[in-house]
Amino acid sequence: MAGTDQLSAVFAALADPTRRTILAQLAERDATVTELTEPLPISMPAVSRHLKVLERAALISRTRTGKWRGSRLEAAPLREAADWIERYRRFWDSSLTRLDAHLAAVQAAAEKEL
Amino acid sequence: MHTEAPQLTVTRVFDAPRELVYQAFTDPEHLAQWWGPTGHSLPRDEIECDVRPGGHQRWTEVSADDPGIHIHIHIDLTDVADGTLLAGVMQVGGRLQEGVEPFRTRFRFEFHDEAGGRTRLEIRQWLAEHLAAPSEGGWGEAFAKLDAALARAQADLEVS
Q1: Integer Cα distance of B83 and A63 in angstroms
Q2: Which of A68, A82, A97, A102 is most buried by a 10 A CB count?
Q3: Over the stretch B3-36, which tens digit does the pLDDT of each residue have?
Q4: Residue B104 shares a structural domain with residue B52
């Protein structure tokens, strides 16, 4: 599991709808900036900026074939982000089940005293 | 502006009055009884609760099954409304379970009245440690700032 900085960068990168759209495109196949810009209502430099954020979060890697620069989706950080959410969900699930039992016990004890 | 959803949302309804559920989160005696997975416990003398805006909560979580586990929970409270709201930043550190790194998460716990004297607890968590406390602008603004900061950092890297 990567450290918090990496995970924060991943969640921050995922926080933007345009970047999620780009990731969805890359999930289908590697693509160049030109290809990624085509379906989006923003300029190529804007797409490049989003790609930099994604690259920084290690969600994509940049490839180069001849003069074509492509982007490729990296699945591992996405999986780590999903793992974090899943682990926390399990934490709350078991804690809140204990809380439920605790609340029942506290109220039963209070009723007994009356 | 993009308003961002928390990374984690958990909702649970308890058959208990709101004040009691809130107390379970803010009173050391209560916290020690339920926090953490089964098998984990909170040494009572290591629980600190100073519940108010700007206050804090601290405790340690140990495991009967695994003596290697010694988790420190540090909560800094930013927003507190008695009986209805706890919000702030939670830091999870110490010796955690295998494969888990220390991390920080922003959280918001809301306590709502439900019919029949029950209480609905809503938990939201955001993992984003670089964010300052969101002001009136809220999370959208905070994320926009983060985006800008990330873009700047990236640009700086390219220049250097």
Answers
A1: 54
A2: A102
A3: 456 778 889 999 999 999 999 999 999 999 999 8
A4: yes
